[in-house]
Design brief:
This protein is an alpha+beta fold. Among the domains are: about 1-35, no CATH class; about 90-155, 2-Layer Sandwich (Alpha-Beta Plaits). The chain contains 6 helices and 10 strands; from the N terminus they run ααββαββαββαββαββ. It starts with a helix and ends in a 6-residue tail after the last strand.
Length: about 200
Amino acid sequence: MRLAWDKATAANMPKDNIQRAITRGAGGADGENYESIRYEGYGISGAAVIVDCMTDNRTRTVSDVRHALTKHGGNLGQDGSVAFMFKHCGQFIFSPDYSEDQIIEVALEAGAEDVVTDEEGLIEVLCEPPLFSDVRAAFEKAGLKPEMEGVIMKPLNETELTGEDAKKMQKILDQLESLDDVQEVYTTAVFNETEEG
């Protein structure tokens, strides 16, 4: 709950909107009961997609998600059809401005399982979801502020898309993210930015 509050305030969402979202999520708005639901499917060229939703109407939500996928060449799969392609984990991303050694030390002492630095110098820390709060608290105590953080579904492998396939996949992702009930969209798709198109 604290993570959601922090994300909303960081995005400059008004406190009234945040409170309404909390009330709605707790089933307190207009007596409606909202539930969390996950849909799995495929986009272009076999790129896997996981869509996490919060809804008061499963029928409407599944219809919206199916339409967003099929309109541009994807399809909705069965439960479990793509979940094995992702790892459920806590993730922290730090800018290259931070000392990699300091982040590694704090992360491992707090129970993180992996620290990786990419070619641009961004430092990624991964942990088991139950340890997310502990690792976060350790970073706060050490004065280390990540650029991004959250409990996510991290793709185990990537599906690289270029040209028209990349455009179609981006349309699928944009349409899914625009749906009112959608909270998060995860995909194995990555876009090759060096391609023209």
